[in-house]
Automatic annotation (TrEMBL):
Signal peptide: none annotated. It comes from the Bacteria. Pfam families: NMT1. SUPFAM superfamilies: Periplasmic binding protein-like II (SSF53850). Keywords: Signal. It comes from Streptomyces endophyticus. This is ABC transporter substrate-binding protein. Residues 18-242 form the Solute-binding protein family 3/N-terminal domain. Belongs to the bacterial solute-binding protein SsuA/TauA family. The keyword Signal applies. It is found in: Periplasm. Its main location: periplasm.
Length: 353
């Protein structure tokens, strides 16, 4: 709705541009509220109204479709949502990598004391009850581990478990191991006697997480999108440079989060704070869509070009190179332009492992 945007004539207008934005209650999405708290959106003359944290990416997508927010942060659930007809424009990243093929530092495997699961020997997953959230990023991480171990999904028992329920499931023997994103691996180890984090990251899958708006909003308000992405990029840089301060912010925006947990989780989170776009990001989404399609969770043939809108973040990258100077360079062969068309073979070759 046009009345959701006020003073959209650009930075310096008499009234700041009003923007509605939503995020999921998770450590890797904390950049949005932290940036609002730190005043980085104010610097871009944006008055950001935050929705109450959504429990899942699906809820955030529903809010975007209903017109309740202008921007959300969402990862894997965007694939199924797009195939169901929700109009999405992926305009930036909140987590992932534009310089390499796979990154998954915020993902871990936590095993029960007597499970026999050994992160150094993934074949020990055979026959075990593995807790994941089916269709989510932790499910895909399991698939990546099984592929590395030469195992099939039929070699393990997948137990569909929501992250908040994993500690109890591990404690009661409902699962032998939990695969999940931060801060849950850290809190599970703290809550379950003998539980141990046996594997962290490893580059088994490309982690994805996008800043998303609708095509109509992006078309009507291109300058607002660019300013929003500039503020998020500034926030990400601040978090990379000040992880303890970012952890402090997380405790304020994620009620009940211990400072020690936030500090530990932020160490991993900052490794994936790369808001840029390259062919590696297209490759990541295509890879995740293919993995989900093999499991029957989404339809095959997902067209990543239909949903990426790289122009806004490319403009931000060109106008504000200092916001990205501490990040690894995007490989020259992986750099994209506004009219980029994805080719899996060339992207795979361009993006290092």
């Amino acid at each position: 709705m046009d009345d959701a945007v006020e003073g959209a004539s650009g930075a310096g207008a008499a009234a700041p541009t009003r923007v509605r934005a939503g995020y999921v209650s998770a450590v890797d999405q904390i950049g949005l509220p932290s940036g609002v708290e730190a005043g980085y959106f104010d610097e871009q003359d944006l008055n950001v109204k935050l929705a109450q944290p959504y429990p899942t990416g699906v809820d955030a997508l529903n809010a975007l479709q209903a017109g309740e927010v202008d921007f959300i942060q969402v990862g894997t659930p965007a694939i199924a949502a797009a195939q169901k007809g929700i109009d999405l424009s992926l305009v930036g990243n909140y987590t992932g990598s534009s310089s390499q093929k796979s990154i998954d530092e915020t993902m871990a495997v936590v095993a029960a004391a007597k499970s026999g699961v050994d992160g150094k020997d993934l074949t020990t997953l055979r026959g075990k009850k593995i807790g994941v959230s089916e269709g989510s990023i932790n499910h895909l991480y399991l698939l990546g581990l099984l592929r590395e171990a030469g195992l099939k999904t039929s070699d393990v028992k997948i137990v569909n478990t929501e992250p908040p329920d994993m500690a109890v499931a591990l404690k009661t023997g409902g699962i032998d191991a939990a695969i999940v994103w931060d801060p849950f691996p850290i809190t599970i180890v703290d809550q379950v006697d003998g539980a141990k984090e046996v594997l962290r990251g490893g580059g088994h899958i490309p982690f994805i997480g996008y800043i998303v708006t609708t095509p109509s909003y992006a078309k009507k308000h291109p300058e607002v999108v660019e300013r929003f992405l500039t503020a998020r990029a500034r926030t990400d840089q601040w978090m990379r440079e000040n992880p303890e301060d970012a952890a402090d912010s997380a405790t304020r925006w994620l009620p009940g989060t211990k400072k020690s947990v936030a500090v530990e989780a932020m160490k991993h989170n900052v490794k994936q704070l790369d808001p840029r776009f390259s062919a590696c990001n297209y490759l990541a989404l295509d890879t995740q869509a293919r993995l989900l399609a093999k499991q029957g969770a989404v339809k095959a043939g997902f067209d990543v070009d239909k949903y990426f809108d790289p122009k806004p973040i490319l403009k931000v990258m060109a106008a504000n190179p200092k916001l990205f100077r501490d990040l690894p360079d995007v490989p020259k062969s992986a750099a994209v332009e506004g009219g980029y068309r994805f080719d899996r073979a060339s992207a795979t070759k361009a993006c290092p492992s």
